[in-house]
């Protein structure tokens, strides 16, 4: 049974949520489900839209796992030291600590779904070139 916290009415949605600006992530991130709009504490679901030429900063997460699923468009993803082409239907698994970077190097929108194992926390994100966290 889900406690009625006023967020219960959002358990089923027919929209892509509100846009969130996340520094360094590239593109637009639409938060479909997160701790601010549903009573979830361990998962997040976002819809990401990268316009042509958009690149996320290379980064890793210190405690979050992610899965991306490409819905439309083409581009590339860098995972640690390997680069892979992505297109509709591509899935990407990103364990804790893996460096990654999504790039839209095409002339069309690159859209993908992101599932995260933890709510977003800026302390979890470590960008390439930053001092190592303590």
Mind explaining what this structure looks like?
The protein is built from no helices and eleven strands. It is an all-beta fold. It is globular. Helices cover about 0% and strands about 40% of the residues. The strands form three sheets. Strands 1-2-3-10-5-8 form a six-stranded antiparallel sheet, with no helix packed on it. A three-stranded antiparallel sheet has the order 7-6-9, with no helix packed on it. Strands 4-11 form a two-stranded antiparallel ribbon. The protein has a single domain (about 15-125), classed as Jelly Rolls (Sandwich). It has strands at about 20, 30-35, 45-50, 60, 65-70, 75-80, 80-85, 90-95, 100-105, 110-115, 125.
């Amino acid at each position: 049974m889900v406690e009625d916290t006023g967020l219960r009415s959002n358990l089923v949605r027919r929209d892509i949520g509100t846009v969130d600006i996340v520094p360094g992530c590239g593109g637009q991130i639409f938060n479909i489900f997160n701790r601010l709009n549903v009573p979830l504490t361990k998962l997040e679901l976002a819809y990401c839209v990268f316009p042509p030429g958009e690149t996320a900063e290379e980064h890793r997460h210190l405690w979050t796992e992610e899965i991306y699923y490409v819905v439309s468009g083409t581009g590339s993803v860098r995972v640690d030291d390997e680069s892979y082409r992505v297109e509709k239907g591509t899935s990407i698994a990103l364990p804790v600590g893996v460096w990654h970077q999504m790039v839209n190097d095409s002339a069309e929108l690159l859209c993908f779904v992101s599932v995260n194992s933890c709510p977003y926390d800026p302390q979890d994100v470590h960008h390439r070139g930053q001092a190592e966290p303590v």
